Amino acid sequence: MARQQLDSAGRFFASIRRMFPLRDRYILHHLLLGLAALTGGATALIWLTQSLHFIGMIVQHGLSLLAFLHLTLLMLPSFVSVILPVTCFLVILWFYQRLAGDRELTILQATGLSPLRLARPGLVCAGLATLIGYGLSLWGAPLAYHHFHRYELEIRNRAAAFLLEEGVFTPVSRDMTVYIRERHSDDSFGGIMIEDNRVPENPVTILAEDGLTEPHGDVLRLILHNGSRQTLNRRTGELSTLLFRLETLDFGSPHDQTLSPDVAELTMRQLFHPQGDLPAHAHNKLLIEGWTRLTGPLACLSYGMIGLLCVLRGRFSRHGTIIRPTMAVLSVVGLMILSLMLKNLAERNPALVPLLWLEVLLPIIVGGGIFLRDAARTYSLSPASTPFRQPPAQ
Questions:
Q1: Transmembrane stretches, by residue range (predicted)?
Q2: 84-110: pLDDT as tens digits
């Protein structure tokens, strides 16, 4: 059994070698390494700049370095899914341009290889980047952002417990104020008074001998012992009093944040089939977000095709080393601007959704057609390189 598995593995690797000769493996190896290095460096730079926004929250609330890393690292899948098409394009353009500058492409073309054969490693690299982009766009980024949103809200809700100071009336929300007489070493409180105006018609005043706080889901729960709950009915002026031994009260952060799901953390099913009656603009926004997740990863293949076309099409020129890369960069920048414009327009008019697909598929279709047309031609050695044959003797 083990021998059969080894034989099957050997045949598999042999088929891979036949499918990808040494030159293709050499190009693909450098492309993948460059893609990983450039994407990792760009992601680290963006992560560093974005994480600075959370420094204040971490310092003010006294959170650990591990909590800071946990919070900020959850943003990485979203960063990678956004910058992956650009880094894929830059790596393909840079490496193939380097091959052209070193005359390696000229030598390979002189051996009879068509532009499609030369572009195959770049297309494989762009295809792998597209698959990774779909994994991040459809699953990784929404899931990571969902955990990021919950963890950020949990940190802010925990901060309410740290803001409770002795002898100070602390507003924990817009409609609730908490006063504690003393704070113990185990983070429990003594002498608690709470003014709860979340229901304006029936304000509540709570007095308790002691209590403590603990996280409960997405809110902070205050557990009170041995106290009274006084409720005033503003219509009748009646005051009712309830004595308790144990009472729980949930409240959020001082910013009064609630766990409302963001568009970036919704699943594809929630985007295309939202629950409840939504305004037309909100419904269109969800639909366009779903279509953007489906079309966005194809930009890796689309931008990569532009880079390959600009390098492999045409003869080597001393001035082409500057003109063609510049044209490729300007084309990709134009497509990115066009994508943003179409997304904004489609949110107002969903009938423009097909233009989102056309914008990413058109470079792929045009580039593929050009490469297939060139591959259909006969590539052979030039007459100067063919061996001289003497005419047969008569």
A1: 26-48, 68-96, 123-145, 294-314, 326-346, 352-372
A2: 999 999 999 999 999 988 888 888 888
Cα 138 to Cα 128: distance, rounded to the nearest angstrom? 15
**386 within some domain:** no
Place of tokens 């009712």: 240
Q: Residue 221's beta-bridge partner residues?
A: 214, 250
What is the separation of C-alpha 195 from the centre of its chain, rounded to a whole number of angstroms? 42
Q: Is residue 147 domain-shared with residue 292, that is, in the same domain? A: yes
Q: Do 196 and 60 share a domain, yes or no? A: no
pLDDT of 216 higher than 90? no
Examine the fold and report which residue of 189, 221, 251 is the final residue of a domain before the chain moves on.
251
Token pair 């489609």 is at which residue?
A: 346
- Let me know if residue 390 belongs to a domain: no
Q: What is the pLDDT of residue 336?
A: 96
Domain-ending residue, one of 251, 275, 304: 251
| Two tokens, residue 6 | 């080894």
Please tell me which residue, 153 or 78, carries the higher pLDDT value. 78
Cα(first)–Cα(last) distance of the chain, in Å? 66
Question: Do 31 and 140 have their domain in common?
Answer: yes
How sure is the predictor about 321, in pLDDT bands with cuts at 50, 70 and 90?
Answer: low
If asked whether residues 233 and 372 sit together in one domain, one would say no
Q: How confident is the model at residue 382 (pLDDT cuts 50, 70, 90)?
A: very low
Phi, psi angle pair for 391, to nearest 5°:
-65, 150
Output the pLDDT for position 343: 94
Residue 6 has pLDDT above 70, yes or no: no
Residue with tokens 């003014």: 195
Residue 4 domain-assigned (yes or no): no
Q: Is 366 domain-assigned?
A: yes
Instruction: Give phi and psi for 315, each to the nearest 5.
Output: -85, 160
Q: Residue 352 burial by CB count (10 A; 0-12/13-18/19+): exposed, middle or buried?
A: middle
94 and 195 share one domain: no
pTM metric for this prediction: 0.74
Q: Quote the radius of gyration of the chain (alpha carbons, Å).
A: 32
What are 263's two structure tokens?
């568009």
User: What is the domain range of residue 131?
Assistant: 14-158+263-377
